[in-house]
Every structure is written in structure tokens, then in C-alpha cells.
């Protein structure tokens, strides 16, 4: 027995160490109770985490912490805390958390999820230099032309609205970045892009990927037993082939002297100035193409869903548009200034169903102190946009879709509430990580909201017996930016005269389209030709 006595202190030390692993260190914000080793991993939500995060926020406050093993997550369900930490202290809160799956797929070159490295800074500098407000204005003709095709296609095939808004958003950003449009969703290149995007979003979704980063031992699982490793390997190969092909097409067009003003042409013309290698150029385009295609299309899928569920708001917006625009022309961007209710509706949709309910996580690169709490270096910071926008202390009946709240107060909050931290572009991110394409996205949203409300009635579909089919405004798919699950609805032109105006404007946009209709397959050319045959109304 005496021979084991010297081991007792060692054994006790190991027990204490194991008990501390997973526990919440002194000074951290409060949070759910932890257990040894795991911390909160045993209760970390595996699906729709924003609901659970909001439930915890109501219990533990606007800033609380979670433990996954020895690592820390701080969840901000407080817009002021997000502003103070991520905007005002962005020099130490602009990093991204470890993202092993992202490293496997993109080798750290994807601007949205990559670490705050010199590579990221170089790519961000290039984006900022190219994606200026002036450059966005210069792209308005193709945005307006694509918006007209969206309306025209809804006249022809309203049942395809769910994928048609994806085609629209993809074609706009594809034209802007690579100088090449996508006339139809079913084209192999377009269908492949959205398939690859779905795979990427599924792998990147925090509830499915975060445990790998917080428990590094999982990285050692052999590929044959780790489905996610096989998926990442396959996705990297497909991404590189797809984006490499688009880059090569642009380079070849430039060699032939057939430039059309795309951002990739600008980048290639200034590549020595930006000092970007081939991999960086590839993911420069990939990042913007994915963000521009995905977020805008999700926003419009939600737009249709929410208006179908809220016919009174739709009617009120249509009445305002009719007063401003009338019956003889389509809306223009300048009209929006005269439409306070339509502007309020756009803001309310951002609040009611934010595209990224948990934003994209940040990470601290140095220790921070905030409101008496200590936040260590390497802490993941998640902004719970869903919880902020559904806070009954901020918003009157936040669970209701009510654009009028933005006519009552600037930020839609209860009168008298301090809403200074609730800037209108909050859903587009914080600090040095704010979305560089925010102006392009807002332009697409503004143009199409006016067009679709002016032109169409969006109502519940009916079954064979003529009964309305209700829509579920909570039925969303999983993913980093979850879209609404496909749903049925009825989209019909408000008048035959408006349908004829849309057709006329679509034919008039042919010259704008032709500038970007490069590299089309014979099938695509045939589709374009058929789509420009007048319809009967």
C-alpha cells in the first residue's frame, strides 16, 4: 500500500483537471450549467440552433457563454454588445473561429469563413477596391434587365418561382463578377452551382461542424469512417473545377478583346497591384458568387412566403406603389424614395426572417473585457440576430410581421427604446467582416420588391377541391443561411395591361442581355430565342 502513496496526489490532480475541463472559468459571462469534459456539448443544439440560443438568452441575458470542452463560445443577443465588441473593437474581433471543414475544402482562401490572415486582408482589399458604390451603380442596367426577366418568367411559369428567384440572383452576380449571365435555372452550369452551394452550406452549418473544431480528436478519424471528410474532398474538387472554369472563360475573353466590364476583368487587369495568386483569384470570385447568389435568392423566397401569409401587408404596399407608379410603366429605383411603406416592408422582412439567424461567427484574437466579463483570446463570438429581432423588450409583438412598426419609429422598436445599435444593415454583418456586397444586394432587393408588388398578386395556392393551402412561415431548411422549404402559392399578374408592359420591357432589355450572353450552349441559345417570342394575354 505504501508504494502507491506517492501516486495519490497525481491521481487527485488528474481528477481535478478532468473536472475543470469543460467548466466555465471565472469571469466568463453566465450560461447553462456545464458537465466535466464536455462542458455544454451534450446540450448543444444539433438543428435550428437559433431557437435554443434565444431560449438561453431569455434566461441568462444578452451576453452569455457556452463551453465545448476547453473552448468558449460567447453568444450576443444584444445589439449594443455586438456593436461594442465587433464594430468598435474590430481590430481584435475580426478573426474567424477554427473551421476544419472549411480548411479541407478551400485551404483558407474563402473570404467569408477564412481566418484574419494576410491572405484574407489582401483579398478583402481587392474586393473593397473593386466593389465600390460607383461600380455598383454602373451595374444597374444588368440588374434591372434581370429583374425584368424575373417578372417575365413569372408570367410564363409562375409555379417555378422558387427556382426562378435563384436564377435571377445567380445571373445578376454571375454577370457582375464574370461577365456571363444565366438565362435559365435548368442549364447544367447553373444547376451544378446550386447543387455545390447546397453541399457547402450543409457542411458549413454550425450545428454540424462546430463539434469537430472544439474536439480536435475527431480530425484523426480516418476518411473511410468520416463521411464529412469524403464530402469535403469531393466538394473541393468540384468547386475548383467549376470556379476555375469560370476564371478561364474570363481570361480567354480578355485575350480576344471581348471585355464587358465584369469585376473579374478588373481584378485580372490589376492582379500585380493586388498581388493575388491563382488560388486567391479563384476564391475571390467564388466567395462573391456564392454570397450574391445565395443570400439574395433566400431573401426573395422568404419575401414571397411572407407576403402570401400576410395579404393585408401586400395589399397596403400595392396601393402605395399604384399611387406612385400608376398603371403605364414599371417602377424605377428613384420611385422608392416616395414609398415609405414599401421601404418599411423591406426592413421588416430583414427583421422578421433574417437570412443568417446566427450571423457568421467571429473570433477574438486577443483577450477582451466587456461589462465586467472577461472574454479570452480564441473565443468564438456568435451574434444571435434571431434573438435580437424577436426580443419583446425591443419590439411590440415581434412574432408578427408588421411593416408599420418602421413607420412608427426609425428602427421599428417600441417608442422610447434605445435602438441606436440597431442599424438597418445589421443582417449584413459587423466590423471588418461586414458583407462587401451590401450595396449590390440592397439594389437587387429594392428593384424586385417594387416590380413584383406592382405586377403580381401572391396568394395561397388551392387544392383540387378549391381549398386554400396554408403556408408555414417557420418551415425552413437547415444550413448556414437556411432557406424556406419549397412551398406552393399562386402568382398571377394583377392586370393584363401590366403583363403586356412586362413583356415589352423584356424585349427592350435584349440589348443589355446580349452583352452578357457569352459562352452559351446551343440549348441555351435555343431557350433564349424561344423566350423572346411574344405571348398571348
Question: Any descriptors?
Answer:
alpha+beta, 23 helices, 9 strands, 7% strand, heme binding, metal-binding
Question: Which SSEs are present, and which pair or pack?
Answer:
Elements: H1 7-20, H2 49-60, E1 63-68, E2 71-76, H3 79-87, H4 90-93, H5 100-106, H6 118-130, H7 133-138, H8 140-156, H9 161-178, H10 188-204, H11 206-214, H12 227-255, H13 263-269, H14 271-274, H15 278-309, H16 311-325, H17 340-352, E3 362-363, E4 368-370, E5 373-375, E6 380-383, H18 385-389, H19 405-408, H20 438-455, E7 456-462, E8 468-469, E9 489-493, H21 496-508, H22 510-514, H23 522-531
Describe the protein.
The chain is built from 23 helices and 9 strands. It is an alpha+beta fold. The strands form 3 sheets. It has a 4-stranded mixed sheet with strand order 1-2-6-3.
Question: Which regions contain 5 or more consecutive residues with pLDDT less than 50?
Answer: 1-18
Strand order of the largest sheet: 1-2-6-3
What would you report as the Rg, rounded to the nearest angstrom? 25 Å
Counting DSSP E segments of at least 2 residues, the number of strands comes to: 9
The fraction of residues in strands falls at: 5-15%
Query: How would you describe the shape?
Result: globular
Structure annotation, total helices: 23
Through-space gap between termini: 97 Å
Task: Determine the fraction of residues in helical runs and give it as a percent range.
Answer: 40-55%
Main pleated sheet = 4 strands, mixed
Give the overall average pLDDT. Answer: 90
Structural class: alpha+beta
Binding site for heme: 435
Pathway: Secondary metabolite biosynthesis
GO molecular function: heme binding; iron ion binding; monooxygenase activity; oxidoreductase activity, acting on paired donors, with incorporation or reduction of molecular oxygen
Subcellular location: Membrane
Amino acid at each position: 500500500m505504501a508504494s502507491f502513496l506517492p501516486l495519490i496526489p497525481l491521481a487527485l490532480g488528474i481528477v481535478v483537471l478532468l473536472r475543470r475541463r469543460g467548466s466555465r472559468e471565472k469571469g466568463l459571462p453566465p450560461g447553462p450549467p456545464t458537465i466535466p469534459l464536455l462542458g455544454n456539448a451534450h446540450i448543444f443544439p444539433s438543428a435550428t440552433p437559433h431557437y435554443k440560443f434565444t431560449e438561453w438568452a431569455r434566461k441568462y441575458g444578452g451576453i452569455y457563454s457556452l463551453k465545448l470542452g476547453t473552448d468558449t463560445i460567447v453568444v450576443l443577443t444584444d445589439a449594443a454588445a455586438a456593436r461594442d465588441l465587433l464594430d468598435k473593437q474590430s481590430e481584435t474581433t475580426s478573426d474567424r473561429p477554427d473551421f476544419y471543414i472549411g480548411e479541407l475544402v478551400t485551404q483558407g482562401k474563402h473570404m467569408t469563413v477564412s481566418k484574419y490572415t494576410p491572405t484574407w486582408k489582401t483579398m478583402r482589399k481587392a474586393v473593397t477596391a473593386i466593389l465600390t458604390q460607383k461600380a455598383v451603380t454602373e451595374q444597374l442596367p444588368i440588374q434591372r434587365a434581370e429583374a425584368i426577366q424575373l417578372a417575365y418568367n413569372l408570367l410564363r411559369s409562375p409555379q417555378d418561382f422558387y427556382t426562378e428567384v435563384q436564377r435571377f440572383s445567380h445571373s445578376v452576380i454571375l454577370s457582375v463578377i464574370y461577365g456571363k449571365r444565366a438565362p435559365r435555372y435548368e442549364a447544367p452550369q447553373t444547376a451544378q452551382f446550386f447543387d455545390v452551394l447546397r453541399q457547402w452550406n450543409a457542411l458549413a452549418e454550425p450545428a454540424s461542424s462546430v463539434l469537430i473544431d472544439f474536439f480536435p480528436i475527431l480530425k484523426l478519424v480516418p476518411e473511410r469512417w468520416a463521411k464529412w471528410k469524403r464530402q469535403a474532398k469531393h466538394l473541393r474538387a468540384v468547386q475548383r473545377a467549376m470556379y476555375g472554369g469560370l476564371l478561364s472563360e474570363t481570361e480567354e475573353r480578355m485575350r480576344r478583346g471581348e471585355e464587358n466590364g465584369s469585376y473579374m476583368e478588373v481584378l485580372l487587369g490589376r492582379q500585380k497591384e493586388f498581388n493575388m495568386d491563382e488560388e486567391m483569384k479563384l476564391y475571390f470570385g467564388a466567395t462573391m458568387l456564392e454570397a450574391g447568389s445565395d443570400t439574395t435568392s433566400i431573401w426573395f423566397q422568404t419575401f414571397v412566403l411572407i407576403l402570401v401569409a400576410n395579404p393585408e401587408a401586400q395589399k397596403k404596399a400595392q396601393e402605395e406603389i399604384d399611387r406612385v407608379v400608376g398603371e403605364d410603366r414599371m417602377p424605377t429605383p428613384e420611385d422608392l424614395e416616395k414609398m415609405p411603406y414599401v421601404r418599411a416592408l423591406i426592413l421588416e422582412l430583414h427583421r422578421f426572417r433574417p437570412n443568417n439567424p446566427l450571423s457568421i461567427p467571429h473570433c477574438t484574437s486577443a483577450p477582451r473585457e466587456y461589462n465586467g466579463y472577461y472574454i479570452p483570446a480564441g473565443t468564438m463570438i456568435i451574434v444571435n440576430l434571431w434573438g435580437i429581432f424577436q426580443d419583446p423588450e425591443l419590439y411590440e409583438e415581434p412574432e408578427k410581421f408588421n411593416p408599420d412598426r418602421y413607420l412608427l419609429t426609425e428602427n421599428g422598436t417600441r417608442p422610447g427604446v434605445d435602438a441606436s445599435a440597431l442599424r438597418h444593415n445589421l443582417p449584413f454583418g459587423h466590423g471588418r467582416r461586414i458583407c462587401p456586397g451590401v450595396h449590390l444586394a440592397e439594389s437587387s432587393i429594392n428593384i424586385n420588391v417594387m416590380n413584383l408588388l406592382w405586377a403580381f398578386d401572391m396568394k395561397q395556392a388551392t387544392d383540387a377541391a378549391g381549398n386554400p393551402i396554408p403556408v408555414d412561415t417557420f418551415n425552413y431548411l437547415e444550413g448556414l443561411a437556411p432557406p424556406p422549404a419549397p412551398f406552393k402559392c399562386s402568382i398571377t399578374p394583377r392586370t393584363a395591361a401590366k403583363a403586356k408592359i412586362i413583356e415589352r420591357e423584356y424585349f427592350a432589355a435584349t440589348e443589355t442581355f446580349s452583352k452578357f450572353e457569352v459562352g452559351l450552349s446551343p440549348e441555351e441559345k435555343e431557350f433564349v430565342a424561344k423566350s423572346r417570342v411574344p405571348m398571348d394575354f
